[in-house]
Automatic annotation (TrEMBL):
The chain crosses the membrane at residues 33-58, 70-92. It comes from Helicobacter didelphidarum. The lineage of its organism: Bacteria, Pseudomonadati, Campylobacterota, Epsilonproteobacteria, Campylobacterales. Keywords: Membrane, Transmembrane, Transmembrane helix. This is DUF304 domain-containing protein.
Amino acid sequence: MSEKQLNNIESKKLDSNDDEIIWELQYKKTPLLTLWIIVLWSFRVVVLCGFIWIFYIVIKKLYQSFDKGIWDIVLFGIISLMFMAVAFGYGISIIRTLNTKRIYATSTNLVIERFIGKDIKFEMGSFYFCDFSHTFTAIYADSTTISKFGEEVYSAYSFLDPLRSNNIQELYAMIKPQTQEYLSKIDLGNYDFFKSRHSKISPRFDLDFEKIDELRKLHNAK
């Protein structure tokens, strides 16, 4: 083996399974980025503490106002569980973000490597990124979710994405052919759902839907 070939092998980044890493999520490192990360984490801690404080005040007021009848106890229990679910869900999202070690891609999968627990994998071309940026999700400031086409609720993973100063577009350019092929094979309802909201999704994924429609016709004709 020549020296050039050896250098090429050594220059390749491999994961723990010896698969070549073709892309890794990175950010433009600036003083503002570091400051913004501190602000985001402070904001999340404040929101979580706010949930707990509101939960305590509301439950205390409800407990004092109820007559302690059976229906009052049931209603009190339901409201308590609702507040606990919201606070617990938000706390889990914080823990999940802290547990994200790195996000990278091999030729076959997008891999979310975690400090604790098994790595999460998405088949190449089966996913897209979606920013949380509207008012309803303000408490998840600067979060981005990786969602699987057709399984947005069940197969999704959110991570902190400060200032959106990432290199996701580089990955999109690499996986465009695989993504279009994947979309040509999924259920029509799931395809139409994604197609109808594609223009509203950020970061933008520049897909050729005419090409995808042609591929779908070819697959359906077989």
